[in-house]
Design goal:
Layout (H helix, E strand, L loop, with lengths): L3 E10 L7 E11 L4 E6 L5 H8 L7 E6 L2 E2 L7 H7 E4 L12 H11 L4 H14 L16 H13 L5 E5 L7 H18 L2 E5 L3 H7 L2 E6 L2 E7 H5 L2 H6 L6 H11 L11 H16 L1
Parallel strand pairs: 3-8, 3-9, 6-7, 7-8
Antiparallel strand pairs: 1-2, 1-4, 4-5, 9-10
Helix pairs in contact: 3-4, 3-5, 4-5
């Protein structure tokens, strides 16, 4: 069964005011256990609005949001408990860190869930490991960490609640390429080991192409494209029409194809591109 299912969701900001703005139009989708979904779209296309529907931070004007098969907006549902199941990491989550030690900060969520201290301690330890930090960080002051470390502590705070789905809004914003890759690789490992579904909102086509399995493209609050990552990125022209860039690798391969070279343009990672180019060189040499 899907963990999250949206059925014909519509949402507008400022209903009945002169600033009324329809931000989501008839969105239907589902997120299954273990999924790795990327959400992309031009600025203002509705990405943040959409993910805020996943855990009940926003309520649709019409349509349904189901979590594990139940409509979260029926009177009997406790929205707070939904937020423990569907963890949302906001953009620049480190700005929400306010405890004196890393351990206290990560423990905040599990404590709010009413877990006993032994379980809280276990979860803090586990979450820290998932984000690639060891126990020597536990008593450190978060504000004396590097930007990348601080970001990982903030992500660990949500992981410690053991959500079924982990949603991250631009988790790599403002980090250098090495820091970006490190976080994305750790998230991928976390997904594989824990079975948690991950939803990643990103402006970086490189990050999406390299790491996620399925992509959903939003355009003015509507789903413009969705499918496997390679199927979506093979529609380069359409992506450009939607105001999106395409990965640099894809651009190079498409450029070669346009010049008449019979190259496979489906590569999404540097390794795949290298193999595609080697195959091309072999063919040309013969
Ligand atoms: N609180 C709000 N009140 C009114 N309109 C809003 C509000 N928040 C967002 N909007 C509008 O709703 C639309 C969708 O915004 P949203 O923030 O979901 O887009 P986004 O794809 O996340 O953008 P970005 O990539 O810039 O973060 C935009 O037109 C935006 O101006």
């Amino acid at each position: 069964m899907a963990i999250i299912e949206l059925k014909n969701v519509n949402f507008r900001y400022g209903s009945g005011t002169p600033f009324e703005k329809q931000a989501l139009h008839d969105i239907s989708l589902s997120i299954e256990p273990g999924d790795f979904l990327g959400i992309i779209g031009h600025t203002g296309s509705g990405k943040s609005t959409l993910i805020r529907h996943f855990n009940g931070l926003l309520r649709p004007d019409s349509g349904q949001v189901l979590v594990n098969g139940d409509d979260i907006w029926t009177a009997s549902k406790d929205i707070r408990s939904i937020r423990f199941q569907i963890g949302l990491v906001f953009q620049y989550p480190e700005t929400q860190i306010f405890e004196d030690t890393v351990a206290q900060d990560i423990a905040y969520g599990p404590r709010n869930m009413g877990l006993d201290e032994k379980e809280v301690e276990l979860r803090v330890h586990e979450a820290l490991q998932f984000v690639g930090l060891n126990d020597s960080y536990l008593e450190r002051n978060p504000f004396r960490l590097s930007g990348g470390e601080l970001r990982r502590v903030a992500i660990a705070g949500v992981i410690a609640m053991r959500p079924q789905v982990l949603i991250l809004d631009e988790p790599t914003a403002g980090l250098d390429p090495e820091g970006r890759n490190k976080i994305l690789n750790e998230l991928e490992q976390f997904r594989r080991e824990s079975g948690t579904a991950i939803v990643l909102v990103s402006h970086s086509m490189e990050d999406i192409a390299e790491h996620v399995r399925n992509v959903l493209v939003l355009d003015h609050g509507k789903i413009a494209l969705d499918g496997t990552t390679s199927a979506v990125f093979s529609q380069a022209e359409k992506l450009v029409q939607l105001g999106l860039d395409i990965p640099q690798i894809t651009k190079v391969l498409l450029g070669l194809k346009a010049k008449g070279y019979a190259v496979d343009t489906g590569a999404l990672t540097l390794d795949q591109a290298e193999r595609a180019l080697l195959r091309l060189f072999e063919k040309e040499r013969r």
